[in-house]
Model the fold of this input.
Amino acid sequence: MTTIKRPDGRKFDELRKIEAKVGIIPNADGSAMFSFGDTIAIAAVYGPKKMHPQHMQDPEKGTLRCTYNMLSFSVTERARPGQNRRSQEIGKITEWALSPMVLIDKYPNNVVDVHINIIQANASTRCAGINAAAMALAHAGIPMKGLVSSVSIGKLDKQLVVDLCKKEEDWEEGEGATDIPITFTNDGKITHMQLDGKITQKQLKEAIVLGKKACEEIYEIQKKALKDAVEDEEK
Amino acid sequence: MNSTQTTPKITEERIKKYLSQGKRFDGRTPEDFREITIETGISKNAEGSARVKIGKTDVLVGVKMDVSTPYADSSNKGNISVGAELLPTSSPRVEGGPPKFTSIEIARVVDRGIRESKFIDLEKLCIKEGEKVWNVYIDIYSLNDDGNVLDAAGIGAIAALKTAKMPKYDEEKGKVLFGEWTNEKVPLSKNMPISITFYKIGENIIVDPTLEEEDIIETRVTLGITKEGISSMQKGEKESLTVEELNKILDLSESVFNEVFKKIEKHIK
Done:
């Protein structure tokens, strides 16, 4: 077996410190912050509301629409403000990651908007964004079957690790880095998965098992943040 | 801002009635700001950054830098570039897409407040005259809009600059080492400009409106004020202003500057 040490000293299956909080944006119908270590995502939900432009309305069911945006100063080399191909793709896969759990069939011609912003980036930003988005939707009171939880599984040379940070994403030794962001529903189904790198079928199966276990941990933290918010309101 | 008024007529009348007695819904006088909180260092990857809350208005500002060739007319000076985006996160009224005029105006007004007060010492940002100078990008994002994003943006910009450190630069290769910083601060002068906007509602001049108040303003004047005086100004929106009203604004400006300065001083050193 290889003897890889993670740059931040974590165990192979150890997540970074997670913080999760809902209700951070007063104007929004629902909002949440989710962080993996130095990666911080904020999500705000507006809706359900009439879809504009009108030609995009679906008379049969409601539409979920997600946008993903990296603030220019969230990364070390300034990102040009505005949407690009990467952010558009991540917005779309976020929609797909959430859709199976969101019950908006009963809102024809309406849209639920989810806006995700990355304040500070240190890898796994899409996963943090999806986690914040799921919490913000629940906080907005959108009917849902359950939550989704997202994590990145990495392979550094030959070693599988949970929750990649930037230094690991840029791993160059041995076989280099493989990055596998994956999203699970709380009943254990996969709603999103991507992969960049190189991995055998056998090891990918192991990665999925690791991902599922990590997402179960994340789910508990998301749930607790939502419960805490309800209890705070009752006080 | 007030292009899509949603404050109902009846509320508008009540706001005006209160103001005629020198009062506001939240108990402030017309010249009072809401509470201001500033948190710095919100992004470790920025040269400097700040989150400014004025009441429920919440704005993020970050400073990033890089190196390029100077403009021909300022070959020994660095450059400033200010961008602003009202995120769709911040209110149900904001739609996505390319920047609207409101965002552009915020960026322009903040830019001039900093530029004209000479708050950043641009000559010290010259690496080699005519060849290499630093660019300072100040990017502003609103997270929650409850009025007066303009002043929050201006205050956020100076707070972010105050904490900004110079990135490392490899002179031989002519490359910025992104993500690595020196201990040197971005060169600033003592002439710190604070953005203060005066808004006219009926016969009244107020500062720091909530969104409900901002919806019904007729015109506004933004001043970039330093301890030495006024270095930038912008009158916005359609309605006119009498000379007496403008004089009143100028008379008020010093005491409001002092109030705001006191409120932010403890947060930025």
Summary: Chain B has one domain: 2-265. Chain B has a mean pLDDT of 94. The domain at 2-265 of chain B is CATH 3.30.230.70 (Ribosomal Protein S5; domain 2).
